[in-house]
Specification:
The complex is a heterodimer of chains A (about 325) and B (about 300).
Chain A: E1 3-14, E2 17-28, E3 32-36, H1 43-50, E4 58-66, E5 69-70, H2 76-82, E6 87-90, H3 94-97, H4 104-116, H5 120-133, H6 139-143, H7 152-164, E7 170-174, H8 182-199, E8 202-207, H9 210-216, E9 219-224, E10 227-233, H10 234-239, H11 244-258, H12 294-297, E11 302-305, E12 308-311
Parallel strand pairs in A: 3-8, 3-9, 6-7, 7-8
Antiparallel strand pairs in A: 1-2, 1-4, 4-5, 9-10, 10-12, 11-12
Helix pairs in contact in A: 4-5, 4-7, 5-7, 7-8
Chain B: H1 2-26, H2 34-38, H3 45-55, H4 61-73, H5 87-122, H6 124-139, H7 142-156, H8 168-198, H9 201-208, H10 213-221, H11 226-241, H12 245-251, H13 256-265, H14 269-297, H15 299-305
Helix pairs in contact in B: 1-14, 5-6, 5-8, 5-11, 5-14, 6-8, 7-8, 7-12, 8-11, 8-12, 9-10, 11-14, 12-13, 13-14, 14-15
The chains are: A alpha/beta (about 325), B mainly alpha (about 300).
Chain lengths: ~325, ~300
């Protein structure tokens, strides 16, 4: 399978504060890669770095390639013309991502007007098609509505329609279902899987919800304190995690669903470190039950085991 | 919509009633004896009594208020002591000039404030310069701006007439004075709204969609500026329609403001009361219009209106 997105040694810093460090990752054609991590681990920064949409103060080092384009070598006008064509972005809060003073149809149509040079009426017709594609019922009427007149699930679909309007090879979704109820969330996830299977788009799905990971992802990348802890196929990672942090995440999730009643729930001890004050060596070591002295000194070499990689001196399971 | 208008009109009517009562009370504060103003030379007791009776001034105050309300309701604002003409006709004669100046002034405020505010929000380089200019304008009273313009462009460059009048050429300087005086306020609001909009998620989404900056500014950001601008313009329009006393006086613009000033100087009670009443009514009416316009410009409140 060919990689649509290649990230090599990506580092993002604001002044002396490093948000991301040593990120090397590929997203392949036709796969959904879930990026998992706690709040503050750098998930959104990674997504924004991919789209070259970080605020001006961010210092980015490393190499990012999307569909053959070296994103950070592009002149700004080219970059702008590629935005939307190359990467579709679904941000966290769908309500905020839609402009309250414009009908949703117009907000989809403008993508066609700007990128394809279509007239307003042609673009509108395409926008209605795009809304139908994300299964918005009665798209002709829905296109004329303003964001506040749509339900949360419908707004999320409208944002998805905008992101997918130009059939980009890559879709980045930043926890888009977090604000939705479980039922609506399930509908959106099913829709994304179906659209993804139809179009072979590569999806980077950012979440902290292991339930969403289990339901959606082909592969999983686990981010902890700005570093990749573990990457591998979803089923393998969920059944036999290598990294102690992944193990804790998976155990928390299973405990929540299958844990015996009345027993205390499993929880990872301690708190995730802030980006300003990260521990030395492996950043997980203060919270890790298997830590040894070496963990405090140096970040571990990355181990490759078939399809999986892990950054740990003492990985769990059959990685040794 | 009908409900909104009904509420607004009822609200405005109550305010107007309060205004009328206040104006009525004002005549007991304004110095000067109407009898002396109307009578030739020093009137005899008998003449003074007849004049008082004619004006109804010998009645108790509540009866006078009742008559006053009744007259105002019929559009009768009394007769000028000095000019011996109906006050309503005097004001109506000045209304076109005042309306022209008010409209031109508000237009100038928008035409100056909008681009200045946009430039301040978009260009960090221009922000310092324009903030400085705004501060200078803000610290100058309107009459200073007016006199400066009159001296520089009227007497100095001789581009504009200095002798007063109600023509189009005479309109430019007073309108510009109002515009410059209002620019810092308008620019500030435009800048605040625009910066709020530029930092929003929908603008980030618009960038991610690959839309050009100009497209994002005009289509996504400016619509968030207009409701606030409409409110300000409506309130200013109402205020200016009540007469821009200082500006009209400086430029000799024959509007309601000038009429009011002359009436006060001559203690012409009915005219003072009439101009106050008409001015207040226009403020009330235009505030209502501004509220409606703001609601119509924002789709989130539009349904409540329509």
């Amino acid at each position: 399978m060919t990689a649509v997105v290649r990230i090599r040694d990506l580092e993002v810093a604001y002044g002396s504060v490093r948000i991301l460090e040593g990120i090397s990752l590929e997203i392949r054609k036709g796969e959904i890669l879930a990026l998992v991590g706690e709040t503050g681990s750098g998930k959104t920064t990674l997504a924004m770095a991919l789209a070259r949409m970080l605020p001006p103060g961010a210092a980015v080092r490393g190499y990012v390639e999307v569909d053959g384009w070296a994103i950070y070598d592009l002149p700004v006008p080219v970059l702008r013309s590629l935005r939307g064509r190359l990467i579709g972005l679904v941000p966290q809060d769908a309500m905020a991502a839609l402009n309250p003073v414009l009908p949703v149809g117009a907000q989809v149509a403008e993508v066609f007007q700007v990128h394809l040079g279509l007239s307003a009426s042609e673009a509108w017709a395409r926008a209605v098609e795009a809304l139908a594609r994300v299964r918005i019922p009665r798209p002709e009427q829905a296109a004329r509505l303003y964001p506040h007149q749509l339900s949360g699930g419908m707004r999320q679909r409208a944002v998805l329609a905008m992101a997918l309007a130009l059939n980009p090879p890559v879709l980045i979704a930043d926890e888009p279902t977090t604000a939705l109820d479980r039922l609506t969330q399930g509908e959106i996830l099913a829709l994304v899987r179906r659209l993804q299977a139809e179009s072979e788009i590569a999806v980077l799905w950012i979440t902290h919800d292991m339930g969403v990971v289990a339901a959606l992802a082909h592969r999983v990348a686990v981010l902890y304190a700005g570093r990749l802890a573990e990457v591998g196929p979803c089923a393998e990672i969920l059944s036999a995690p290598f990294h102690p942090y992944t193990e804790a995440l998976v155990r928390t999730y299973y405990d929540l669903i299958h844990g015996p009643r009345g027993e205390p729930l499993y929880a990872i001890q301690g708190y995730p470190p802030s980006a300003r004050d990260r521990p030395s060596g492996c950043p997980f070591h203060p919270r890790c039950p298997y830590r040894q002295e070496i963990c405090q000194d140096r970040f571990p070499e990355i181990l490759q085991r078939g399809e999986r990689i892990v950054a740990c001196y003492f990985p769990r399971g059959n990685a040794q | 919509m009908a409900r909104f208008i009904g509420m607004r009109v009822a609200h405005g009517a109550v305010t107007l009633l309060g205004l009328i009562v206040l104006t009525f009370a004002l005549q007991f504060i304004i110095p000067g004896d109407p009898v002396r103003m109307l009578a030739p030379r020093t009137p005899s007791e008998e003449v003074a009594r007849r004049i008082r009776a004619q004006l109804g001034l010998d009645r108790p105050w509540w009866e006078q208020l009742g008559r006053y309300l009744l007259r105002v309701a019929q559009g009768d604002l009394g007769e000028s002591y000095v000019r011996r003409q109906p006050v309503a006709r005097l004001i109506a004669g000045r209304l076109p000039a005042t309306a022209a100046l008010a409209l031109a002034g508000v237009l100038a405020e928008i035409l100056l404030g909008l681009p200045v505010g946009i430039a301040m929000a978009l260009s960090p380089r221009l922000r310092g310069l324009l903030s400085g200019l705004n501060l200078i304008l803000l610290s100058m009273p309107t009459f200073v701006i007016g006199i400066a313009l009159l001296l520089a462009l009227g007497f100095g460059a001789r581009l504009f007439p200095t002798t007063g009048g109600a023509g189009l050429r005479e309109l430019i300087l007073p309108a510009l004075t109002l515009g410059l005086a209002g620019t810092p306020w308008y620019a500030g609001v435009v800048r605040d709204r625009l910066e709020e909009s530029l930092g929003s998620s929908y603008v980030r989404m618009a960038v991610a969609k690959g839309l050009p900056n100009r497209w994002i500014l005009f289509r996504h950001c400016l619509p968030h500026v207009f409701p606030a601008l409409a409110t300000m313009a409506g309130m200013d329009l109402g205020a200016y329609l009540s007469g821009v006393v200082v500006v009209e006086a400086i430029f000799g613009w024959p509007g309601i403001g000038l009429l009011a000033v002359q009436a006060m100087q001559t203690l012409d009670r009915p005219v003072v009361m009439g101009t106050l009443l008409v001015g207040g009514a226009s403020v009330i009416a235009l505030n209502g219009v501004a509220d409606g316009l703001r609601m119509i410009l924002d789709p989130r409140t539009r349904e409540e209106v329509g």
